[in-house]
Amino acid sequence: MEIVSESSRGRDEEAKRHLYARHVVSGYWIVDPVTETVKVYRLEGGGDYLRVAELSLEAGDSLDCPLFPGFSLSLSELFG
Asked: β-strands 49-56, 62-64: how paired?
């Protein structure tokens, strides 16, 4: 999970994505407290990430993770 700030946005959304792919991290989330969104990425067979979801507080979304059965976090709890 990466929590972005204005000073680290480019590094968190680009440079770290390549670093994580190189080390075969199966997935990651980018949490943006300014836009109150969470981008969910999954590593694909080709060695790059596919964005599988973009969740938002405004839409009332919840963050679930198949690696942690039963885990669910409402974005209203995350950003509230």
From this structure: unpaired
Among all chains, which residue has been given the structure tokens 């000073």?
7
Q: pTM score > 0.85 for this model?
A: yes
Q: Cα-Cα-Cα-Cα dihedral of 77, 61, 4, 49, to 10°?
A: 140
**30: nearest Cα among 45, 18, 46, 16:** 16
**Tens digits of residue pLDDT in 19-52:** 999 999 999 899 999 999 999 999 998 888 999 9
Q: Three-class SS of residue 75?
A: helix
Name all domains of the chain by residue range, CATH numbers in brackets: 2-79 (3.90.1570.10)
Token pair recorded at residue 69: 């059965």
